[in-house]
Amino acid sequence: MADIPTLKQALAVSPDNIPILQLLGKAYLESFALAEAREQFDRVLALDAANVDARIGIAQVLDLEGKTSEAVLRLEQVCADHPEHAIAWKLRSKIALKEGEARSARTFYDRAVALNLELADENLLARIEEAGGKAQWKFADENHASPQASGDWQAGAYFDPDFDDEEDDFDDPFDDDHGLNDLELDFVQRADVNFAKVGGMESVKEDIRMKILYPMQNADLFAAYGKKAGGGVLLYGPPGCGKTLISRATAGEINARFISVGLHQILDMWIGKSEEKLHQIFQLARRQAPAVLFFDEVDALAADRKDMRTSAGRTLINQFLAELDGNIAENDGVLVLGATNAPSHLDSAFLRPGRFDRLIFVPPPDVPARAEIIRIMAEGKPVVGLDPDALAKKTSDFSGADLKAVFDQSVEAALSEAMKAGKVVPVSQKMLAKTAKQVKPSTRKWFESAKNYALYANQSGFYDDVLDYLGIKK
Asked: Who contacts 179 (Cβ-Cβ below 8 Å, separation ≥6)?
């Protein structure tokens, strides 16, 4: 950040110096002194009405003040007057993404990068793609006719007239939803993320590749050995550490349908109806294969039958076991993922071979993963002086949900000050560090309970990964 007092001293000597005015305006903008920044940019325009940097600076001020429509209008005019100005296109991309216009955001981003490759921003691009923004520009090479004549030429990029903005990011072979019935429309979801969009969790990703993805991607090879693609995998670990996200990303890695099932979508007050719903969902997954069938909080549907007071609960569990076994129909190409915070509550019958026979421990994010999560959470927020690595080191044992709580509480504190001051008050590194001391890691309570099971009720080796994570010798 530029030295504001020094710039003000220089400006006192040369009050009409446009470069100094611009630097001072940017310095005020970086410190979120919006009124002061606007004043400097207005002074530049009074001296040079066509100054592009000052026009963009005012658009940035307006955006931060919440006057998004006016900011967009000003940027549209800048881009119309100066279509080669890459920074303006990138700012339009950020605002469009914030307004939920992912496709426009991708168009503006691609144009900015085509004009200036140094503006490439992997985090921004990932957020655009996650929101549904797909590439609409191709790059010309010696095999393509130059599109300069049509006016579409932008530093080697041109608009692809054959682009279909209804295509799915992952070339989902089951992307045609027109033939889906009501049940399918309720449950079938697009696998809109893959491993590249999941921060950290590298050991978990590799575990999933070895136990899930490679068998699914090489089904013919496995068939030669009498093995079928699919099966059941149980993800377990403390809450808020990304079990649901990694499940959705698993479907994205193999271009499969993602079918997410909650307890409320199964249970029914009428006898036999819950079992019927469960069967219909499994049949849906079989029709949609390859598919990932995901049961969140699976311990609620697969609880230990010894704890059941009524026969209705035991009947539903028996139905679940039968569906997993493939006794009712083949589950070839169907990967059943279950996520739980309480694996000890599952009926032991679910853990035998052929059911949830593969177990994957999802631990809290490590330091590099926390730093990446912090960077992602800071995107689009008025955060200054952020040091993700330093903050990550101060948030030991924090889950992704805990880190979100740190940002949420810090933003609320900044908003409270902003309402009193009548202007935007940025969230600082100091504020985040202070909040981090107040937020208690939710994972510690889980590990306290899991440690007892791992030490005293681990005859089957179910909790071996937990012991390894805690550094306890078996």
From this structure: none
pLDDT in tens, 440-450: 998 988 888 88
Q: What is the pLDDT of residues 47-106, one digit of tens each?
A: 998 899 999 999 999 888 888 888 888 898 899 888 889 999 999 999 988 888 888 889
Sign of the Cα torsion 164, 169, 173, 174 reads negative
Query: Rounded distance, CA 111 to CA 122, Å?
Result: 15
Helices in 65-148 by DSSP H: which ranges?
A: 68-81, 86-98, 102-115, 122-130
Q: How many angstroms separate the CA atoms of 193 and 172, rounded?
A: 12
355-391 CB burial, b ≥16 within 10 A, e <16:
bbebbbbbbbbeeebbbbbbbbbbeeebbeebebeeb
Say which residue the tokens 């810090």 belong to: 410
Report all structural domains of the chain as residue ranges with CATH numbers, in order of start.
Answer: 4-136 (1.25.40.10), 182-360 (3.40.50.300), 367-440 (1.10.8.60)
Question: pLDDT digit string (tens) for 152-201?
Answer: 333 333 334 334 444 434 343 334 443 444 445 445 555 567 887 776 77
Distance, CA of 124 to chain centre: 12
CB 61 within 8 A of CB 38: yes
pTM of the model: 0.57
Bridge partners, 346 (sequence order)? 303
d(Cα 350, Cα 318) in Å, to the nearest integer?
10
Evaluate whether 363 touches 237 at the Cβ level (below 8 Å): yes
Distance of alpha carbon 92 from alpha carbon 391, whole angstroms: 30
Largest CA distance in the chain: 88
Share in percent of the chain as helix, strand, coil (round to 5) = 55, 10, 35
